[in-house]
Design the sequence.
């Protein structure tokens, strides 16, 4: 969008003297009303595409950025989405934040990312205080918070719409996004069985995370269908951290003459811990013991041998959760949210950390 300058050349209409562009500048350049600019900036419907394009072009030329406070004061929305989490895996948190932020940016929203202590005795009160202090248009809850009744009670009491990521409890209580952890763990165990493994060890995930139980269920189902009973000394409890993976490996590899042929760790960080302990104590991966994981976080391609794992679409799950919230906000508060649900696919990624026994 250009205009004639005094010298007869064509140039852009931009603020001078370092002034910040305002909604009035955009409206004047686009030749529309201030109300129309506001509707376009808020992604509201019933604006002609030609007009919408004209306003967006003017805003881009003027480097206009809507003022978040002004937008919230002018309407019923704060344009803030809250992300609440408590997870020891930094890659999970980073991927979750990336997915939520990516979707919120498309809708002109900002993200308030708030870590919580799921073991705190006053967790419900802390979340209630947060929601009373900061006005949010929606909340995204990740494991284990999404499965805790006191958390759900606090969010519902505040009247804030929310979406849960991979919940395992309180079915039907809220909108959610999910993947089939049971089937994914079943498929990974079945993969090892098909490669000739029979003595497959397992590192269980954090007991407070519902997905940990679902992954163990998938492992057990595959073993049972193969007519095999997991050996108690080849099952170890982990807590979704690298250190707990090392501790699990110490238990699994206690008897050098009685090693499992494979170890399935129910998240990648624990698999890395198992592999590190194996290397430190002369257990060769995969020559002596195959190791597989679950998540496909970036470390899976950094560690050697590269980790065979289940690719969990963490960022996509977070994106979908934000999309449910923003779609509801854009459509109006009368739109039902509770029944919204999306199931995303997983993928088994084969790399070098396991070997075939045949």
Sequence:
């Amino acid at each position: 969008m250009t205009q004639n300058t005094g010298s007869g050349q064509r140039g852009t209409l931009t603020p001078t003297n370092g002034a910040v562009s305002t909604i009035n500048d955009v409206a004047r350049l686009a030749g529309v009303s201030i109300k129309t600019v506001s509707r376009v900036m808020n992604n509201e419907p019933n604006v002609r595409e030609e007009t919408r394009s004209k306003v967006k072009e003017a805003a881009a030329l003027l480097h206009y950025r809507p003022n978040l406070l002004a937008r919230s004061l002018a309407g019923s929305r704060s344009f803030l989405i809250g992300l609440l989490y408590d997870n020891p895996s930094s890659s999970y948190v980073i991927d979750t934040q990336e997915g939520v932020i990516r979707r919120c940016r498309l809708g002109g929203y900002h993200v308030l990312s708030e870590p919580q202590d799921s073991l705190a005795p006053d967790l419900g009160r802390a979340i209630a205080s947060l929601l009373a202090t900061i006005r949010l248009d929606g909340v995204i809850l990740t494991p284990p918070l999404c499965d805790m009744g006191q958390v759900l009670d606090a969010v519902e009491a505040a009247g804030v719409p929310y979406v849960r990521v991979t919940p395992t409890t309180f079915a039907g209580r809220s909108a959610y996004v999910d993947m089939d952890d049971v089937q994914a763990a079943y498929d990974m165990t079945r993969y090892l069985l098909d490669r000739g493994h029979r003595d497959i060890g397992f590192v269980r995930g954090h007991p407070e995370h519902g997905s940990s139980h679902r992954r163990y269920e998938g492992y057990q189902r595959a073993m049972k269908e193969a007519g095999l009973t997991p050996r108690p000394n080849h099952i170890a409890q982990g807590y979704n951290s690298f250190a707990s993976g090392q501790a699990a490996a110490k238990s699994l590899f206690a008897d050098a003459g009685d090693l499992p042929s494979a170890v399935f760790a129910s998240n990648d960080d624990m698999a890395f811990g198992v592999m590190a302990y194996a290397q430190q104590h002369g257990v060769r991966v995969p020559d002596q013991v195959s190791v597989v994981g679950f998540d496909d976080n970036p470390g899976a391609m950094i560690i050697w041998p590269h980790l065979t794992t289940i690719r969990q679409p963490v960022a996509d799950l977070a994106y979908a959760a934000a999309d449910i919230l923003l779609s509801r906000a854009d459509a109006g508060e009368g739109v039902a949210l509770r029944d919204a649900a999306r199931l995303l696919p997983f993928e088994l990624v084969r790399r070098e950390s396991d070997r075939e026994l045949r």
Q: What stands out?
A: Residues 314-331 form the longest helix (18 residues). Confidence is low (pLDDT under 50) at residues 1-12. The CA atoms of residues 27 and 37 lie 6 Å apart.
